[in-house]
């Protein structure tokens, strides 16, 4: 499964899609990129006259690349077709703010993928390769065929 | 290992993942893990992984289908330990 096929299967659209590109992917991990758009809706209110990317949006970007894109790849290897994702846990520390138009890289490593639960160690780096955020994210992959 | 010994090791594992509105006193052998103890599917996986570590056994996907209540877990553990 190539990167474009994974992106096509993502269950998100604007204004809540936070994946531009998948740089590399394997059974052990994924590496992807996203550039925050200067006109994204949340900058109007976070903060007043001082746009900074909200931590929840950074977390979302980390989850979309590190868990959902990765999960789509992993389940494709198991030949499961229609699936939904449910976030079950996040534990993230934030280190550096991310401003509008900044490009970030998300690197996710599998801790385990068992019984449809995917748990990963995920970090986000900025264009200078400084660590913006890191932690663990886990989610359940829900197989629609079983419902 | 007797089912009593298994239960003594299993109970604290389940307790860890109980939601706040469920008291540990409600755990008994017939407790349905998801319906009665309100353990969600993600935590059910955590329980299985902890059981694997504590009892040094491995669960397969098919085993999950048989796992509804505490007694099912005890039986599965017993089967796997004796292999």
Automatic annotation (TrEMBL), chain A:
Q: Which top-rank group of organisms is this from?
A: Bacteria
Q: List the InterPro entries.
A: FabA_FabZ, HotDog_dom_sf
Q: Name one GO molecular function term.
A: lyase activity
One Pfam family, short name please? Answer: FabA
Q: List the keywords (alphabetical).
A: Lyase
The signal peptide stretch is none
Put simply, this protein is called Beta-hydroxyacyl-ACP dehydratase
From TrEMBL, chain B:
Q: Which InterPro entries match?
A: ACP-like_sf, PP-bd_ACP
Superkingdom of the organism of origin: Bacteria
| Residue span(s) of domain Carrier | 1-81
The UniProt entry, under SUPFAM superfamilies, shows: ACP-like
Name any one Pfam family assigned in the record: PP-binding
Fetch the Gene3D superfamilies from UniProt. Answer: ACP-like (1.10.1200.10)
- Protein's name in the database: Acyl carrier protein
